[in-house]
Task: structure prediction
Amino acid sequence: GTDFKIDASYVSPNVSVAESLERAAHTYGVHLLISSNVAETCSPSVASFLRLIDKALIRGSKLPLELHTLDLDVSKLEVVQRDQPIWNTRQRFRARQLLEVEKKRKQACADLMSKAEELTVMRSSFTVKFFQSFNMGYQNYSQGEWQVARRLLTETKGLLPFEDGPSNALLAYMQGYDFEAPTTWSGVRDSP
Result:
């Protein structure tokens, strides 16, 4: 042995957080789950597309994290099958050049999000009424008013052409306590 030996079993806290968020995405029924650390790095216009869905203790993080999602209904897109091109060396080189040019282009992500037709189509199911009802339900959940949260989050389930995963996840969590917030409730749940 040596004093400079590196323990190969060590895993960075960031890796633990990422793994926990990936598991939690299934619990919340979302395709994309974003921690508050990442959401805070977004521009205000990009952050306006994110929905706060919970606050939880996540393995690997010392502090509770707010959890956000980007609401997209992927079933709204039509999948177009295309023949796979056969790549030769010249085509690969040209593709790499085009990717490099695209990387350097300074198009704001917010512009892309508001102008991209596919994103607009995928967000069309999510109405202002849905967001308002969910936000009120979440605020009541966070403040420990679980009977009111139950009513509002049950309502949000009927406002989309499919069941909202975050609404279901919060309702299931509260149901585990018979819709009565624990006396120690501080708006933060254990790792989902």
In short: The chain is about 50% helix and 10% strand. The radius of gyration is 21 Å. The mean pLDDT is 87.
